Amino acid sequence: MRPTTAVRARTVTKTFGDVIALDGVDLDVPAGQIHGLVGPNGAGKTTLLALVLGLAAVDGGTLEILGSAVGATRAGGVAGFVDGPGLYPTLTARQNLTTLARLRGHDQGRRAQVEELLERVGLDDVADDRVRGFSLGMRQRLGLAAALLGDPRLLVLDEPANGLDPAGKRRVHEVLADLADHGTTVLLSSHRMDDLAALCDEVTLLSVGRAVFTGPVSKLASESGRLDYRLVTSDPPGTRRIAAGLPALTLLPSTGRAGASADDQALVVRGAGGALDDLVVRLVGAGIALRELGPVVSPLEAAFLALTGADADADTEEPPR
Q1: CATH class assigned to 5-221
Q2: What pTM, to 2 d.p., does this model score?
Q3: How far apart are CA 239 and CA 261, in angstroms?
Q4: What is the predicted pLDDT for the residue at 296?
Q5: φ, ψ for residue 210, nearest 5 deg
């Protein structure tokens, strides 16, 4: 009988010298789920994925993969990549998969699976091109195909959407969703909140090596509380007067904010969803047409910033992980 939990971590810690990469992390990933790891640069996402892949050993706590405790050895049935896929640049896409399959002992049905995977990730038309000429997005898709050799039960991917164009991202999303539908567990990291919303059943938000949130994406979005909204109406002065009369809303200067400029007619207000509903009702009652209304920052991104204390305008250079 297969375990119902693919990944189970309890108070996992990992240090690199004086740097605490993970500080007592708990994690539960049910089998057949797409689970996302998100957090600021240096939060510990890649370190946690490396532990699950068996590329490093935990310093403290316990880690179970597919029902078995993990020590310094890599668990079976697990595949993926961190810090980008490892590929042979002088070989073609087809030769890369064939070679990797042979090295991993997947000789039976190797040729048929290689062809199927190339088509699945949308690289069948460049199968005989050398990888050194591939774009970042093409290498990401080939890395995904390489990870799927041998049909792993747990797929671990570090920033799989990195470098993908819209068509490539849609292709990867389709592959991952199909894998989960057929029982494969996917654990991935991403900086893109739209990817998490589109793909993940649940997410874990890491900050300075600690898990500060775990749960459904919809619950994370609800953690955002008061959001900044940008409004464009047929009567900006009238809209400003009405918004100023609502104590649950705060009028903010629009100059310099996302989507606004000094000479446009947009207003920016801060408040919870209920306060925005009240404003819309009052605008309609006053005969003011609402032409545009949307959050300056998405609810998911706002929750990310609130829970991690990150600055949206901060330098995002990656420190050692």
Answers
A1: alpha beta
A2: 0.79
A3: 18
A4: 83
A5: -125, 150
